Amino acid sequence: MQERAVHTRELLLRAAAEEFDAAGYASTGLSKIAKRAGLTVGALYFHFESKEGLAKAVMRAQPQSIEPHLDSEGLQRLVDITRVWAQQLLRDPLLRAGVRLSVEQGGFGVQDITSFLQWRDTMEECLRDARESGELLPRTDPARVAEFIVSACTGVQLYAQLVNGRRDLPERTVEMWRLLLPGIATPGTLPRIDLAPWPGES
Amino acid sequence: MQERAVHTRELLLRAAAEEFDAAGYASTGLSKIAKRAGLTVGALYFHFESKEGLAKAVMRAQPQSIEPHLDSEGLQRLVDITRVWAQQLLRDPLLRAGVRLSVEQGGFGVQDITSFLQWRDTMEECLRDARESGELLPRTDPARVAEFIVSACTGVQLYAQLVNGRRDLPERTVEMWRLLLPGIATPGTLPRIDLAPWPGES
């Protein structure tokens, strides 16, 4: 039964993400989400207390889409997180809805910083590992740099979305690193960071 | 009469900005905007065809809040634009509403990239001047860097807004430049860029 409840919750989360991703928060009704998941609105209320609660759960599910894809460490891991994120945004509605709702939340009266802090913590951990491995310039502050990377990624995806539906987000993400790394990493670390295109990237 | 029409339009733009800034797009009605401006809704329709048209005008008015404040050139001008922007966001409702609507526009079904392109063009011009003055590293591409700065500023203000109502946006903006400049400017230019606190900044 427990396993089934987890499965149903995940089903609802994905259905909500697909609706929010396509239509935004304001235009998405709970009955549409329930229908897409093949469930009743009553069943939905068993798992989520409100549309706002569902939106928050979608926002907070963002890291799920990234974590299984990575085995690098330190600064390379930080770079790879953002590159997987850029690719997943092109194909994963759960991540895309999470990012969309996080950016647009002010428009529907929500102020939930949780997903931003999740990303910051993950990135700060990479930067602390990088510091221990001697990859960082002495002046680099892992906490502040992590906050800036989260901020910059948020802005880069929004810009790319408005310009071309995020088609070139993977390239923009690599360009961001070419710009940022000289201000973060020691000169000896720079040539060791792999920014080469991945399979499927232009 | 022409002058009076310009004045009335500006009055409506400011009134709309104050309402959008306080309540967001969805919760703001045209009658409230007209009332705040001391005009009728009919007079409003003489200047703007719809709420969406008014929102677009507010988004596109962003550069107004910056341009009168600057007399620097090249890379320093680019830095100063973002620093004036950070300070003005704390006190100018017209700029604040423009930024808010630009970020949240997906939530009310608008996709208007104009204000982002205005910022990009202004910043690209600074970077082209910087190139001519020999301030840039050879690999620095003015157009791509300008797009990244617009993106990063968009994300930094959103993050700062969620964390602390943008209170530390001026400091975050200076930190952004400490990170970015080594990847953009020649080593000889770096010490000449003034990032010292301004009067009123902590």
Give a verbal description of the structure.
The structure is a homodimer of 202-residue chains. Chain A is mainly α and 202 residues long. Chain A folds into 2 domains: 2-58, Homeodomain-like (Arc Repressor Mutant, subunit A); 62-192, Tetracycline Repressor, domain 2. Chain A has helices spanning 2-23, 30-37, 41-47, 51-60, 74-91, 93-104, 114-132, 142-164, 169-184. In chain A, α4 (51-60) crosses α6. Chain A starts with a helix and ends in an 18-residue tail after the last helix. The mean pLDDT of chain A is 94. At the A-B interface, α6, α8 and α9 of A face α6, α8 and α9 of B.
**From the coordinates shown, what is the CATH architecture of the largest domain in chain A?**
Orthogonal Bundle
Q: Which structural class best describes the helix and strand composition of chain A?
A: mainly alpha
Oligomer: homodimer
Question: Secondary-structure element order of chain A, as H and E?
Answer: HHHHHHHHH
Keywords (chains A, B): DNA-binding, Transcription, Transcription regulation
Pfam family, one (chains A, B): TetR_C_45
InterPro entries (chains A, B): ArpA-like, CprB_TetR_C, Homeodomain-like_sf, HTH-type_TetR-like_transc_reg, HTH_TetR, Tet_transcr_reg_TetR-rel_C_sf
Protein name (chains A, B): TetR/AcrR family transcriptional regulator
